[in-house]
Amino acid sequence: MDCPYCQSHKVVKNGHRQGKQSYLCRDCGRQFRDSPCPAGYSSDVKELCVKMSLNGMGFRAIERVSGISHNTVLNWVRLAQAQICDDNYEIPETAQIDELQTLESSKKTKFGSGQL
Ligand SMILES: [Zn+2]
User: Fold this and answer.
1) Do 30 and 40 fall into the same domain?
2) Is the pTM of this model over 0.70?
């Protein structure tokens, strides 16, 4: 989650507003909510993708199975985790960070090399 105003990564969770996770940007001090769910997919498909992720499938594998972009799936899983985290349940941060770093580095490999 980056700040939509200044693209800062220094964003912290800031409670809930109207049932949605609210965030606060440490750099510009603005508050914002989760971006709206990507349109075009039914809640059934969304739920299935989240379940696949929770059962240990990687986002790339889910993308191959469902045909849905791993970025979209990642977004759904994050939203689902934010809801789960409402209580005392915590998802290990490292799991998420590892996955994000994998995505980042694969992006760089794909678009950064420029060699064909
Ligand atoms: Zn900001």
Assistant:
1) no
2) no
How many residues can be counted in the chain? 116
Distance 92 CA to ligand 1 centre (A): 26
Q: Which residues are bridge partners to 13 per DSSP?
A: 23
Structural domain span for residue 29: 1-34
**Cα-trace Rg, the chain:** 15
Q: Token pair of 43, please?
A: 């809640």
CA of 57 to the centre of ligand 1 (A): 33
Whether residue 115 lies inside any domain: the answer is no
Q: Are residues 24 and 49 in the same domain?
A: no
Does residue 43 belong to any structural domain of this protein?
yes
Distance 34 CA to ligand 1 centre (A): 14
Q: Ligand 1 centroid to 116 CA: how many Å?
A: 37
22-77: pLDDT as tens digits: 899 999 999 988 765 445 688 888 889 999 998 999 999 999 998 888 999 999 98
Same domain, 44 and 70: yes
d(CA 55, CA 61): 12
